[in-house]
Known about the structure:
The chain is mainly alpha-helical and 266 residues long. It has helices at residues 11-16, 25-33, 36-44, 52-68, 71-85, 98-119, 125-141, 153-165, 173-183, 196-205, 208-214, 220-239, 242-245; strands at 253-256, 262-265.
Amino acid sequence: xxxxxxxxxxxxxxxxxxxxxxxxxxxxxxxxxxxxxxxxxxxxxxxxxxxxxxxxxxxxxxxxxxxxxxxxxxxxxxxxxxxxxxxxxxxxxxxxxxxxxxxxxxxxxxxxxxxxxxxxxxxxxxxxxxxxxxxxxxxxxxxxxxxxxxxxxxxxxxxxxxxxxxxxxxxxxxxxxxxxxxxxxxxxxxxxxxxxxxxxxxxxxxxxxxxxxxxxxxxxxxxxxxxxxxxxxxxxxxxxxxxxxxxxxxxxxxxxxxxxxxxxxx
Length: 266
């Protein structure tokens, strides 16, 4: 097995290996779009309005490649993202801006932790600190200077709070339009009523401030459904065998083929 950037027993791999983290994908996207400059870049330089799931798929592939791939795979994935970012520029934004990169990185790190602790298990304080310490490597590969990261888990939480409460993160009309594509994507059989449980989870995982800014429904019915999911899903996960619960399985490296498809090697 070829060595990667993260060790097999790292907290970063333990958290990101859980397939249930896919439930947090919508939350991460909505958090990113809540920054007007990020939303503008996404809207003007991608097909997000017609294929919103593609951005989520690309983000997942990038994260999995860096976290679970061998060193060559991880570095190649980071280079690919950075090359794309050189073309994403507008009158008010530049995808290479460390402030924008830090916000996008923070949405991924925070969503991974929130989703893991909601549906798998709570982390100990020292485990949270270690996760933030380790995961900054992903941010550095994507162009964030080392000195720009919050210095601790507490400072990270304070950064998120400040960005929403009195910072540049404000849900505007463009973000709401793009969010509608996230919550109601055109994905054939997955549209309509089938999306409702996922929407409830996405809404429930969001912070109250962003949930309110997006104007997402959060009445008694939604709250009851979310509370039920928080109780039932962890119990199901605890009974699920590793073959179905996590990917890639421990002891296997992740590699990407030239076509972008992921596979594992021993």
